[in-house]
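Lab notebook: predicted structure, single chain.

Context: the supervisor wants predicted structures on file for every construct in the current expression panel, including those that have not yet been purified. This is the next one on the list. No modifications to the sequence; it matches the entry in the shared construct table.
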Amino acid sequence: MALEPWIHFAHVVGAVVWVGGGITLSLIGVRARRSGNLAVIGEFAGTLSYVGLRVFTPAVLVVLVSGVWLVLTSSEWNFKQLWVLLALGAFLVAFLIGALYLEPQCHPAGTSCDPDIGFRRGP
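Prediction complete. Output recorded below exactly as produced.
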């Protein structure tokens, strides 16, 4: 049985999780922000941190690794093709937005983040 269809499947599933999850969390974030309730916004921030580490990071890595794997193992694709260059460029832009803008916004200097805070219940 060929491995390429499974790598392609992993690539598509990773992209669906990454993009679909991002859109879903954006909509939930807008709703939390509009509520004006600081507890709801705080809960969402904790959830976002939790999901980012456990869902988005693996999905992004699956998309990147499987995409590069497909290009390296396929005679139909190479790193000079426009589609591949656009995909790598989009990945770079998404990475830079996350690293240089979103991360500092979520974790201002001098603060730490507990990714489980959104799921902790107590007084």
